[in-house]
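Chain A, query sequence.
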Amino acid sequence: MINGFINVLKPPGMTSHDIVGFIRYNLHMKQVGHAGTLDPGAAGVLPVAVGKATRLIEYLSDAGKSYRAEILLGYETDSGDDTGKVLNKDLDFIMPDKETVLKALEEFKGEITQVPPAHSAIKINGHRACDLLRRGIEVEIPSRQVVIHKLELLGIKDDRNCGGTANILIDADCSKGTYIRSLCADIGAKLGIPATMSFLVRTRVGDFPLEKAYSIEEIKAEIEKTENEEYSFVNKAEDYLSHVRRYQLNPARQKAFCNGLSSNDYKFEGSEQALLVYSNDVFLGVGRYDSKNKSIVPVKILL
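Chain A, predicted structure.
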């Protein structure tokens, strides 16, 4: 059985579900799942879990993410990107200078309130908002608190004089739940210009960086030439969960842990939290700290 995480470079035009189907078909496995959905038009890092590692996908939800995005100025769309219906168009604006853009970006750093786009997979009463919109049902998306750790200006371009467009290119590091489409529109609003996202690449999900991602062509080529199923693109899942605290269990309690039994630890310092549990540096699975009983409780055994 193949177990681990795959850092997949999702191309534009494929859905995240398409990538899962590709991995299932080529590895001949049913246990395949992904973390952090990417829009079909977006590209970049898509963590995919295979085998027992699928049980660890939920622990990737708290991992931070990084994006490179292009903001198209002069257009506002219902979807927040350039695939949507244009709601507002104004191409006669004065292009803001670098200092004005930098000042606007500063206001989005740190914890901010954001309203995700209605054309998203957010659940409203058990139904995806985008599905409700397709059925003609109006939806109201609640605001949420997200954190923008870094927001960097990479470039400003204005080619309107030669029939082109006006754009701003940014890099963003952010918390889970952040919608870059909403961020692009909000930046435009701060500048007083209609804006929508015209390009997006996810450059990182936690410990999954873009420069170490495998394209679907690379994955397929390695599968075709490898006979022992030891693929370089499949990595140990625990190596990609550095944001989850690591815990060394007393080796004398290893069997008990693997049998679902708790182990007391009166010296543990920390709140209730998930833990990657090891014994003699062998990964056993995920546990949690029970502060009331001062013990390490097994949650998912993977050994």
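The domain at 244-301 is CATH 2.30.130.10 (Archaeosine Trna-guanine Transglycosylase; Chain: A, domain 4). Residues 16-27 form the longest helix (12 residues).
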